[in-house]
Amino acid sequence: MTLIVEKHVPVAMRDGVTLSGDVYRPSDGEPRSTVLIRTPYCKDDPAHTNTWINVLRAVESGWAVVVQDVRGRFRSEGDFVPFVNEADDGVDTIQWVRGQPWSDGKVGMVGGSYVGISQWLAAAKNPEGLIGIVPAVTADDVHSGWLYEDDNVVLGFLAHWVSILLASAGMNEKSRPRIAGLERNVAEGKIRTFHQLIEEAGEFAPYLRDWRDRSRSLVDPELAGHVEVPAFVIGGWFDIFLPGTVASFVRREAMGARNLHDRLLIGPWAHGLMGGWFPARFFGPASSFDSLDPTSLQLGWLEEIRDGRNHADHPVSVFSMGADEWRCFSSWPPDDARRMQLQLRSSTPDRAETSADTYGVLSLEPPVPTIGGRTFFPGYKVGANSGPRMVDALSARHDVQTFVSDPLFEDVEILGSVTCSLKVAATGPTPVVIKLATLDDNGSSELLCEGSSFSTAEGTGGKSITVDLGSTAIRLSKGTRLCAYLASSDFPRLEDGPRTSLEVCHGEGGPVLELDVLRLG
Length: 521
Hints:
- By secondary structure, this protein is α+β, with helices and mostly antiparallel strands.
- It folds into three domains: 3-144 and 216-329, Alpha/Beta hydrolase fold, catalytic domain (Rossmann fold, 3-Layer(aba) Sandwich), CATH 3.40.50.1820; 155-210, no CATH class; 338-519, Galactose-binding domain-like (Jelly Rolls, Sandwich).
- The chain is built from twelve helices and 24 strands.
- The strands form five sheets. Strands 15, 16, 17, 18, 19, 20, 21, 22, 23 and 24 form a ten-stranded antiparallel beta sheet that branches. A six-stranded mixed beta sheet has the order 1-2-4-3-5-6, with helices on both faces.
- Strand 11 (277-278) and strand 12 form a beta hairpin.
- Helix 3 (86-98) crosses helix 4 (114-123).
- The model is unreliable at 351-357 (pLDDT under 50).
């Protein structure tokens, strides 16, 4: 099949701003369904254009493809203000596509990260002609899924993201050195707070100032529940947006918006690194996103909707680490998973600062360093900084408290969410960071999942809190112990903001893990 490529096609928005797009379509002139990709990362860059689907293969499969620079980026007019215009601009672009002679009026959207959240924003308007969206490695909630973790600023990601946005926008002589050094200053600890990031980059990225208010969400936090079309949600166990990815899928069912064609796919991937390989762990060739043939996977799903074919009986597909195989379920967490509680006890009782039942965490300089996990600093495809790294070195720090479970008495598979409940007291507002790892007989611990909360439990009495550690899928053998590291910092993944001494008060017990598990016998 031969194809026609039309470059830099103007598309007028409702306010008169013109956006620029490239159109790829079969040359036979027949009306075709269209895949729409709206990106801030340059439509003329083939690496970004073909990240989620191969454009040529899509056209060969009978689809038209439109790749558009979002407002204020590259060849599109207007000012780029993240998130603000994507809903209306997405709707207007869909309507433009539907009016073209090569269009059959049916549009599906695909793409990851910002390209993914732009789908949620447009789809919430439920535009005519949109048949489905494939938001990958993203969240539908800008506030808690993108900028913050609880009330803790996700600083490392924001510093990198703003850096690449500004660098690719073309900086002048005044701004270029400051932006070029932004990530270096974070890595060296010269920028440690959101306020400092705003001081350094706010002149060139004024939208940063609009994100300071922790209490104000930029979009409806229940956005996914208002989307009527089917959604194929894709995420990674070590992706920065994993909590928001899972929440967007689960939220739809909770709000009664679940569509029979909805799907969830999660692999052992980090943001921009979807091969299933990390320096400390390789999950096998089947773990690669490419092994699933992403183009056929996504186009096949859109065609299933377009052509009215039957939906999948098991719409949830997750890669179970440890077993190193894909598992399929009808829901998430699986219907037959059961909630398990594990009591954790301090492995270093000699560090208790006040009594045998109070475990102290000092606030020291420098902050506890980020090691692996859901990090995206310094950025794209830097796999050495993310994923299942060995973290047992944290137990040697005096500003980290270590808690360990008893050995598991049977083989289990964790399939679902993980939370940690504990009672804390502090001398002021402070982050409460928990990293959960597996612990072997040699004392080596490998990071599994993590999360943080923001505690305002001042005083000696303490306050009970629950820290969401996200979701995971992993098979654990009988005798395995789980290890939780408690700290009040995690830099540069999180802002090194208010940080005070922190105490865990649990009497004779300790923090309690709750997790969804299948018992394997």
